[in-house]
């Protein structure tokens, strides 16, 4: 054991505790007949928790961690401390990119050797840990070779490098019995159409994803393949902008039954949507896979990746998730990072514990809203007119027939209130 967390004991559920504890997250509490832990399926993000140096667009590193530096010794120490934190928090899952867990080698083969060694270390640690792998993914955006994308890069050698990297990461995810594999297209887009062949890039991205699905079946990986919608940053336009865009892309390449989405709250906001909108859209399209839980600073126009603290927002998100039947193989991954002034190791524990409490409160509020049924009753009443035989007949009719029904004063509709404020008041009773 290291002394990084200074002997912090595993957190307990204790609403009256003075120090670090869970006030609302009780993993064994039943919500709709299911343990809270099994609903929420929390995961720690390896990158923000252990690889992020505390910088922002205007300043560099502020954190001082004992594992900093591109060495295998540091990578092994990082893994040791990561699993200590998983135990303190009692989380069932974690997630990684390849670049988070190993130092970059001088060659592809050296990087792979470093990666394989850490995967073997994870495998060893997971034998005595309750924490499993929610998903793995490849970092195909940070290194300068990816400045013009990975699958969409105009250089075929970058496409090849990216494909080989994803193969390694999918192999490792399979080895660790991961429940999902995520493709996060951080730079799959363009900055100007003046130097971009939009059609070719989308075709290459589609073929790349098809190869991933083919390889999944070849190796017998039973997990979900997920795409994480990503708008606006860092490029001007990205091909995986939001859930609807991703679904159209999947349909074009015949992958809508093979691939689902990992939806991030912060990305939903950057796309001009609410989190619950993206979740509802994915539910209706049948592609809801997993979520990245965080929040943005609404006074900033970029992805600040803060830990969630807004219970009403979180409640509406879990409301949509519960309506979809839950997260299944997915989970709640905290794709969130400390503020650059939050320097202490205890800040990492406090941030996750607080976020887990917020999600627990949101889940319980969402479950009560569904059980009481006030929102669904109002929704059904608004669309009740469509339950009549005449209304249903219109959906299999034609314009001439419908027009004859309206002609001669047969129909003269009057507007009816959508009652938005009343519905918002209902939500506020629960949160």
Secondary structure: helix percent: 40-55%
Got a strand count? 12
Elements, N to C (H/E): EEHEHHEHHEHEEHEEHEHHEHEHHHHH
CATH class of the largest domain: Alpha Beta
Query: What's the number of structural domains?
Result: 2
Q: Round the Cα radius of gyration to an integer and report it.
A: 24 Å
Cα distance spanning the termini: 40 Å
Family: Belongs to the xylose isomerase family.
Cofactor: Mg(2+)
Active site: 97, 100
Subunit structure: Homotetramer.
How does this model look, in words?
The chain has 16 helices and twelve strands. The longest helix has 28 residues, at 345-372. Helices cover 45% and strands 10% of the residues. By secondary structure, it is an alpha/beta fold. The protein has two domains: 30-372, Divalent-metal-dependent TIM barrel enzymes (TIM Barrel, Alpha-Beta Barrel), CATH 3.20.20.150; 376-430, no CATH class. Helix 11 crosses helix 12 (345-372). The protein has helices at 36-40, 46-51, 72-89, 98-101, 108-126, 156-175, 198-219, 243-252, 265-270, 275-285, 311-323, 345-372, 374-382, 389-394, 399-406, 420-430, and strands spanning 30-31, 34-35, 42-45, 93-97, 132-137, 180-183, 189-190, 224-227, 237-238, 259-264, 288-292, 332-334. The strands form three sheets. Strands 3-4-5-6-8-10-11-12 form an eight-stranded parallel beta barrel, surrounded by five helices. A two-stranded antiparallel sheet has the order 1-2. It is globular, with a radius of gyration of 24 Å.
Topology readout:
Elements: E1 30-31, E2 34-35, H1 36-40, E3 42-45, H2 46-51, H3 72-89, E4 93-97, H4 98-101, H5 108-126, E5 132-137, H6 156-175, E6 180-183, E7 189-190, H7 198-219, E8 224-227, E9 237-238, H8 243-252, E10 259-264, H9 265-270, H10 275-285, E11 288-292, H11 311-323, E12 332-334, H12 345-372, H13 374-382, H14 389-394, H15 399-406, H16 420-430
Parallel strand pairs: 3-4, 3-12, 4-5, 5-6, 6-8, 8-10, 10-11, 11-12
Antiparallel strand pairs: 1-2, 7-9
Helix pairs in contact: 3-5, 5-6, 6-7, 10-11, 11-12
């Amino acid at each position: 054991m290291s002394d990084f967390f200074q002997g912090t004991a595993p957190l307990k559920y204790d609403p009256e505790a003075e120090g670090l504890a869970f006030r609302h997250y009780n993993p064994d509490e039943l919500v709709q007949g299911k343990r809270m832990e099994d609903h929420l399926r929390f995961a720690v993000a390896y990158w923000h928790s252990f690889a992020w140096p505390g910088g922002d667009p205007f300043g560099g590193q502020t954190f001082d961690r004992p594992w900093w530096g591109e060495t295998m010794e540091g990578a092994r120490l990082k893994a040791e401390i990561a699993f200590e934190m998983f135990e303190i928090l009692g989380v069932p899952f974690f997630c990684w990119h390849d670049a988070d867990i190993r130092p970059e080698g001088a060659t592809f083969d050296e990087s792979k050797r470093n990666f394989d060694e850490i995967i073997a270390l994870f495998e060893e640690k997971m034998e005595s840990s309750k924490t499993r792998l929610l998903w793995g993914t490849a970092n195909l955006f940070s290194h300068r070779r990816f400045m013009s994308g990975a699958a969409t890069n105009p250089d075929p050698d970058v496409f090849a490098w990216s494909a080989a990297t994803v193969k390694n990461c999918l192999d490792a995810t399979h080895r660790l019995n991961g429940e999902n594999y995520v493709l996060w297209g951080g730079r799959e887009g363009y900055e100007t159409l003046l130097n971009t062949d939009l059609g070719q890039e989308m075709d290459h991205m589609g073929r790349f994803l098809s190869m991933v699905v083919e390889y999944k079946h070849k190796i017998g990986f039973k997990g979900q393949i997920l795409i994480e919608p990503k708008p606006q940053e860092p490029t001007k336009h990205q091909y995986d902008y939001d859930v609807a865009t991703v679904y159209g892309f999947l349909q074009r390449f015949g992958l809508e039954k093979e691939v689902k989405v990992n939806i991030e709250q912060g990305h939903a906001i950057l796309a001009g949507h609410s989190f619950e909108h993206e979740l509802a859209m994915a539910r209706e399209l049948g592609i809801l896979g997993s979520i990245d839980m965080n929040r943005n600073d609404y006074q900033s126009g970029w992805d600040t990746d803060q830990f969630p603290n807004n219970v009403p927002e979180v409640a509406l998100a879990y409301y949509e998730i519960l309506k979809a039947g839950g997260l299944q193989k997915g989970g709640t991954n905290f794709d969130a990072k400390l503020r650059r002034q939050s320097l202490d190791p205890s800040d990492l524990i406090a941030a996750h514990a607080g976020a887990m409490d917020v999600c627990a409160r949101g889940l319980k509020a969402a479950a009560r809203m569904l059980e009481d049924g006030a929102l669904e009753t109002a929704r059904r009443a608004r669309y009740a007119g469509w339950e009549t035989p005449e209304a249903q007949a219109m959906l299999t009719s034609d314009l001439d027939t419908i027009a004859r029904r309206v002609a001669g004063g047969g129909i003269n509709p009057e507007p009816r209130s959508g009652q938005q404020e009343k519905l918002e008041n209902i939500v506020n009773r629960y949160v």
